[in-house]
Amino acid sequence: MSLPQRTTVFIVGAGPCGLAAALSLNHQGIHDIVIVDAVLAGENSSRAMVIQAATLEALNNVGCLDKVLSVGDKVETLGLHDGSSYLLSTDFSLLSPYTKFPFALRVPQTETEAGMLEKLDELGIKVWRPFKVVSLKPSQDTEERLFDVQFESGDILKAKYVIGADGAHSHCWFLNLVRSEAGIAFSDLNGDEKHDYGNLSQLALGDVSYTSPPQLDTREGVSLTFSNGNFTLFTPFPADASPDKTRSVYRIVSSVPVEDGTAPHAPSAEYLQSLMDRCGPPSLSSDPAVNLHPMRVEKVYRSSRYCTRSAVPERYFARKSNSGGAVLLIGDAVHIHSPIGGQGMSLGIRDAISLGPVLKAHIDSANGVASDTLFEEWATSRHKRAISVVALTKRTLGIITASRRVWSPLLKLGFAVLRFLCTFKFVKRMVMYRLSGLAEI
Question: Can you give the residue ranges of the FAD-binding domain (predicted)?
Answer without folding.
Answer: 6-391
